[in-house]
Design brief:
Layout lengths: L2 H9 L4 E12 L2 E7 L5 E2 L2 E3 L6 H13 L2 E11 L5 E3 L5 E15 L9 E8 L9 H11 L3
Length: 148
């Protein structure tokens, strides 16, 4: 069962609280970002938990599904929530995200788009992140890398 589709079938576009896990993938002084199909914004891999999944399992799954890399080790960075993590998608769906963010410097595989959520993957220097970043992701990236 797709939990999010199930919830949306009951509440439509009304807001709900969604538990997510995200991964900021880092190598040297670069971080891997994906350009979203729905908004055209850059973000790091992540997504909603599935029923029965742990937050860490979600992070590992989302990292693989979205950028094709297998996390060999994750380091928990923090949980981000609140009004700054309110997202309204182009279709009108609204969600308040509770995002559990991990850092990953140990991974294997080759980065590639494996789902239909991204149009592009790119490694950015952590001091030269793209301008068009999802607002909730920008807050987290600032906490991780500082104001660059």
């Amino acid at each position: 069962m797709d939990y999010i589709k199930y919830i949306r079938s009951m509440i439509g576009t009304k807001p709900f609280i969604g538990c997510t896990a995200s991964v900021i993938v880092i190598k040297a002084n670069l971080t891997l970002m994906q350009k979203r199909v729905d908004t055209g914004h850059w973000c790091y891999p992540g997504g909603f938990m599935e029923m029965g999944e742990t937050v860490e399992q979600c992070a590992i799954r989302e990292m693989y599904e979205e950028v094709g890399l297998q996390a060999d080790a994750l380091k928990f960075f923090g949980t981000f929530s609140g009004k700054e993590h309110r997202v309204v998608y182009p279709n009108g769906d609204e969600v308040f995200i509770v995002d559990h963010v991990y850092l990953c410097t140990e991974f294997s595989g080759t980065e590639m788009i494996l789902d239909n959520e991204s149009t592009e993957l790119k490694w950015f220097p952590i001091t030269e992140l793209p301008e068009k970043i999802s607002s909730n992701c920008k807050r987290v990236l600032t906490a991780v890398f500082g104001d660059n």
